Structure formats: structure tokens, C-alpha cells
Amino acid sequence: MNKQENLESELDQMIEGLQTRILKERFVRIILSTSGFLTIFLLLGVGLTMVFYGYPFLIDIKGFWKILSTNNWYPADEFDQGEYGALAMIYGTFFVGIPALFMAMIFGITIAVFISEYTPKRIARIIQPIVEYIAAIPSVIFGLIAFVYLSQIMKELFNQSTGRGPLTASLTLAIMATPIIVSISFDALQSTPVTQRNAAKAFGATRFEVFRTVALPHARMSISASVLLAFSRVLGETMVVLMILGNSPVIKWNFFSSAYTLTSAIANEIGDARFGSAEFSVLFVLALILLVISFIVIYISNLITSQNKTFFRFINLLLSPVTLIYSGLNGISQIFRKEIVLDSDMIVKNIKKRVIKDFIVQIILASVLVFLLILVFSLLFKVLADGIFEISLRFILSWPTYSTIRAGEYGIYPAIIGSIGLVFISALIAFPIATATGIYLSEFAKDTRITRFIRMAIINISAIPSIVVGLFVYGLFSVYLRWESGLLPGGIALGIMMTPIIASNTIEALRNVPLHHKHSALVVGATNWEAVIKHRIPYAMPSIITGYVLSIARVIGETAPLILTAAAFSFSNSPYPGKLIQEPIRALPYEIYYNLLYSHWEGAVGWALGTAIILLLLVALLNIIAYAMRILIRRKYEYNGNI
Asked: Which one has a higher pLDDT value, 291 or 323?
């Protein structure tokens, strides 16, 4: 009887334990799926906030059309007094963005081809991180470089009064967008099957011919998508255009005249717009227009990468006249083409010609890479050379007062504390939600319309311009909930920007972990969550942690959302914020922008340069930490025999 009772007791315990584990599995699924659905609510919340505040203009068809089609911009509090033609802003956005896109395409595609097809793997592994480091440089520092140095180069080169304007802004934006094209295009070119490459080489193809006939057809969809992603980045940029363009709502075909974009209009005007006024509402309409443009670009990019047949049929239909003309001209040329009899001398001559052509192409591609690297790093060196003398312990550990500024002294300690506080709050918000979303999509979600929508939401959130994220947080929290500016609204804005980076990185990290560990655990009775937490996540942690650090490096230099939600220049007896809300803080990127805004002050440009060096060092340190952590954690698992 005792044995039977013991067996029954053990069986009851096993059943109870199994029930507990199943309940735990269900609870975890609910939490993870809730995190995934939050991304949908966030995306809808951004759009609905723009619609909610822009409602008075959106329901008035004539008024909305007037915004899109007229050029007069005279804000007023009353709806029937001001004029709100945004055509100049829309024009300025594309007038700056399209040249930037073409320059970024030239830089990005040529560099990707060079490091993929012409450089040994060892050198490519050195060049690629150097180019990608450009992407980690905060936009406010690019704005500083363009404002102080690049504009002077343009001034001398084109004999202009200031050198600032759409051309300078376009070149700066092109440099910022180039790493996106390089990274995606390089990976796409490298994914070309080796057998196809070797087959082309076996027939005597040069490296450029291998690229043109084998690699390019295989990678062209991804390259096209990278160009569109770069275009989305260019259209949504705020700080560079805010600091360089002069911000005048005029339409001129002049690359050195003053101009206005949608992003700079929002950043410039929202501070003076009274809540409930016509100007306040129309700024949210401008943000909605910018949001729609960004989503359209991302949607087209997704259609290209997914090779949507309907989309390509539509494109082929549009291009059919050009195709017919080309076919007709080619047919005519075939009629008059003479038959060529090849001999050995002609074959040798042709080979030499192709080899020379390949060498010339290599020189051109290398020249583009060298030009970009020399331009960027010489400007960064100039920042270092001019700003290094501003840096001292006093500069880092003190804060400005009226008396110290009059004496030509400055300090960024409150800005350092503010930036650390913003990163801490944004990490508390983004890390758990984004990681849970990534785990849910990778390990628990089935391929349904809802999960596909969640994935699409993550992509679209990453494409939302930073100024629109700031406007969303400003409208929802600072205005509607009356939080006003402070550490918490700023942290929420940065947390939103971190979420898609971490979620996408978590999905990719788990995808790279072999599935047989999980399957082995499931066979012996483990639940899905137990298999994931014990046999999947530990091996993905190096990449997940790297994503955490890189997301911090991405947002620590963000300025545009902080202008609306958190940052202000204030004199205080304490560098530490006393409240999470209703107390503006100082932050490193805003410090740079503020000093350039008042660049006529003696010493202000030098203070901006010194702050930029500190911010660049922080970003570089974060990237180095991410790289080191990945190596150390991976080495630990390799040593234990787990990978």
C-alpha cells in the first residue's frame, strides 16, 4: 500500500507540476504577445495623434488642398486669419532629398561593389565597419560639421556668401545615408551563390563582368530596397536641414538659397504655436504628410524585396513605352550590324581591352571610397583639432552660470547627467518590450495576417522620422496629459526609437541559433518556453546584448525629439533633474544645437565642438563595447562547448 500511495503521490505531483508549467507557458505567451501587439498600438497611436490634432484641417477638403497646393505661410492663432500653404516645405523636402539620394546612390553602390568584388575579405572586414561607423555619428554632429566647415568649403568652391543651402544639406545627408546602402548592398552582393560566380570566372569573365552578369541580377532587389530605405532616412532628417537651410518658405531653383522642409518647419514652429491654434493643428498635418510619405517609401521597398508580382507588372506597364523604343532601336541596329570574323589577334586584343576596362572601373570605385573617407574623416579631424582645447575637467564637471559664460567659461556636466538619465529611462521602456516582441515573433507566433502586421509595424516604426516621434510624445503626453517637458517624455520618445532596433536584432539573433537544441528539449517533454529560455536565448544573448548597446548608441545622439519633449538650456544650482516631468533637462546633443543656434556668442562654436568630441567618444565607446561584449560572451559559450 505504501508503494502504491507513493506512486499515486508522485503521479499527482507530476500532474500538478505539468499543469503549473502549462499555466506558466500560457502566461508567458500572453505577456509576449501583448508586447507584440503594443507595436501595432504604437504605430496606430502615432497616426491617430497626428489626425486628432490636425482634424480641423483634415475635415476641410478645400483647406487641406490649400495646404498642399499653395505657398503662402503666415501663421496666426485664429483659423480664418492665417495662411498655411505648405507647398514650399514639400518642395524643399524633395529639393534637398532627391539630390542627396542620387549622391548616396553613387557613394553607396560603388563602395559596396568595390569592397564586395575587388577587395580581399580581410580588407573588406576593415573597410565595412569604418563605413558603417559613419552611420553611428549623430545627425547633430553632421549638422555641426556642415555648419562650421562644409559650408566654408562650399563658399570658397562656388564663390557664395555663406555656402549654406540645399546643396550643402544634400551632400551632408548623402554622407549620412551612404552606410545604409553600403551595408544592405554589400550583404546582398555577398549572398550571390559561389557556384554562379565561379562559373562566370571559368568562362573568363572579369570581376566587373561577374558583378554585372551574376551578382547584380541576384542582388538588384535588395540594392533597390536599400536605396529606398536611404531615401526614407533623408526625407525624415531634421537637424541638418534645420541648421543649414536658413528655413525660409520659398520655392527657388537655387542650391544656395534659403529653403524650408517639413521636418524643419515642425521643429521651428511648434515652440511658438499655441495649443488649439490653427498653426498648432497645421503642424500636425505636416507631420501626417511626412509620415505618409515615409510609409509609402517603406511600402514600396517591401514590395521590391518580396518581389510582389502585381507591383512589378505595374512597373513594367509604366516602362513599356521605353521598352518598345529600346527594342525597336536594337532591332534596327541588328539590320545594319556587320558580321565580324574573329581571329586570334582580335581575341587577344579584346581580352586586353576588357582587362583594361576592369582596371579602370576598379580605380573609379576605389576613388569614390577614398574621396568619401578622406572627406568625412578630415572633417572629423578638424572637429577634434578645433574642439580639443575646449575640453578640460572643468568643462566636463561644471555647469554654466551667467557669470561663467560672461567670463568665457562653460560646462557640460548637467548635459552628461541628462543624457545618461534619458538613456536609462528609454532602456527601461524599450529593452523588455522590444526583446519580448522579438522572442514572440521568432519563437511563438505563427505566420498569420496579425503577425505579418506586427512585423510590418516594426519596420514602419523604424521609418518614422524622429521629429514625428517627438511630436507624437509632445502631443500625447506633454499637451494632452499636461506632463510638459522633462526626463520621462524624452525617455519615452527615445524608447520608441530604440524598440524596432532591438526587436529586429532579437529576431535575427534567434534566427541564427540552430533549432536542434530546441527540438531536443521539446522531445524530452519541455514546454516551448522552457526550450526557448534554456536552449535558444542563451546562445542568442551575445547578439541581443549587442543590439542593446547599439540602440543606445543610436539614440544618445538624437536631438529632434528632445527639442519637443525634454531638453532646454537652463541655469540651475543642481545638475540633477528633480522631477521626471515638468522640468526640462539638458542633454549633450541639444547642447551642440543650442550653442550653434547662438553661434554669434563668443566661444559658443568652440563649446559646441568640445561637446561634439565628448559625444563622438561616447558613441565610439558604445560601439567598441558592443563589439567586445559580443566576442567575450560568444567565447564563453564556445569554451563551455555550448555552441
From this structure: 291
